[in-house]
Design a protein that fits this description.
6 helices
């Protein structure tokens, strides 16, 4: 079974709440191979949606690069950022966000939720299938006999909820369970045994 929890919570509290689980940090601050699941991780060669000939280093670079503000249009320079830093584009600096451009040279601006559906979710799925398939397979096998708690800074799993950032950990969970992005639950909900912070078998 796979669960989602906030990385902001104290680890001791999480271990007390999930005594039979493996805690797996999937954020950009992860210290093992699971950092590759972060949208900030620079895998490279990720196709930019609706932008033939363009690729980017990471999912976040695409998401931020296609964002349009009152004072600034798309920023393709972010597509080459491989540092996992300096990717955020803020309202304070660029003004009110107007939407996400549907492609580098697109004329259509997508609303926040629609951009999730047409840009973020399919781009992250591409990464899951083409860059981290090994981790996904290990995670799938491990979750059949253990409870895995994926730690993310955001825990919102509702694509339609525009007031909260979408949790990429929820997309990992959905993909492993065969319901990406969402649908009827088909996962095996067997309860795992043995809480641990040891090496995770799918974190190589």
């Amino acid at each position: 079974m796979i669960l989602i929890a906030s990385k902001r919570r104290k680890r001791e509290t999480l271990m007390k709440q999930y005594p039979d689980a493996i805690l797996a940090d999937v954020t950009s601050s992860a210290t093992d191979g699971l950092v590759r699941l972060s949208p900030f991780y620079p895998h490279g060669g990720i196709p930019v949606p609706f932008s033939e000939g363009y690729t980017a280093t990471c999912v976040e670079a695409i998401w931020q690069g296609l964002k349009v503000f009152e004072g600034c249009d798309v920023d393709t320079s972010l597509f080459d950022n491989n540092t996992m830093k300096g990717l955020k584009r803020t309202v304070r600096r660029y003004g009110r966000p107007l939407g996400h451009r549907k492609g580098v040279f697109g004329t259509e601006l997508l609303g926040y939720v629609e951009a999730r559906k047409q840009i973020y979710i399919p781009t992250y799925k591409w990464v899951l299938e083409n860059r981290v398939a090994d981790i996904i397979e290990r995670l799938r096998k491990a979750s059949q006999t253990k409870t895995i708690v994926l730690l993310d800074y955001d825990t919102n799993a509702d694509v339609e909820e525009a007031k909260k950032p979408l949790s990429h950990a929820s997309l990992v969970k959905a993909y492993v369970e065969g319901i990406y992005p969402y649908g009827d639950k088909v996962a095996d909900n067997m309860q795992g045994k043995g809480c641990t912070e040891m090496e995770i078998p799918f974190a190589e």
